[in-house]
Design goal:
Length: 225
């Protein structure tokens, strides 16, 4: 129940962001995104993977572009993923340079302890789940933690790449196919809150199960080497 409640609250925030996006339909920022398309997603995706909050705007704009240009859904997936990887690397390096004490000042000892335990027990699985989880999941905390707790860079990049490709690939494929429904969701997000909650919870549960099943394989591979 706690899990469902937390993701219900997360989707409420995304729904509110969707309402704000609708009200801002005529703003220069959306005009910029519409004009430059996928290229405009890259800088936003970079920021989205840092400690600067974007309140789900990357997901909304990626889906919005895919709904308007269904044939280019794969292009928007690649642009959002590429920007996210750049931002993830920047945040990883920041965590490695600034260290555990600096991160603790930013997020508190209790939250840092949870991030540390997750990375130590699940490794790349924790990064994969954090990149698939919806806003406002604190993905940047895990990126910082991965750097501070010396998760190997290659494994970090591979898990972040897999998670972001899955997330944005599903998002753009679905919105490209159900474009009209997605735009209707942006107009009336609260009407689809239950469906969004079910889909999100299913995706996160599948990611967690994947990470749990993957862990023994990774341990066996590392012990064998």
């Amino acid at each position: 129940m706690v899990f469902i409640t937390k993701y219900g609250q997360a989707l409420m925030l995304v729904a509110q962001a969707a309402k704000r996006a609708k009200k801002a339909a005529a703003t220069p920022s959306l005009t910029f995104v519409r004009h430059f398309g996928g290229v405009a997603l890259v800088p936003l995706a970079i920021v989205d993977s840092t400690i600067i909050p974007t309140f789900g705007s990357l997901d909304l704009l990626t889906g919005w572009l895919a709904a308007g240009n269904p044939d280019l859904w794969w292009y928007y997936t690649l642009m959002s993923t590429a920007g996210s990887l750049i931002g993830a690397y920047i945040t990883y390096r920041m965590g490695k340079k600034m260290g555990e004490a600096w991160i603790e000042k930013k997020i508190g000892a209790a939250r840092l302890r949870r991030v540390k335990n997750s990375i130590e027990h699940h490794g790349v699985g924790s990064i994969f789940v954090s990149t698939v989880a919806p806003p406002p999941f604190p993905t940047a905390w895990f990126f910082l933690g991965a750097g501070a707790f010396s998760l190997p860079l290659k494994k970090f990049v591979a898990s972040a790449l897999a998670g972001r490709l899955l997330r944005y690939g599903l998002l753009t494929a679905v919105t490209a196919h159900y474009g009209r429904h997605f735009l209707r969701y942006l107009r009336h997000p609260m009407h689809y809150l239950l469906i969004s909650l079910i889909v999100t919870a299913s995706l996160i549960t599948a990611s967690i199960l994947f990470a749990i099943r993957r862990k023994p394989q990774l341990q066996a591979a590392s012990s064998g080497s």
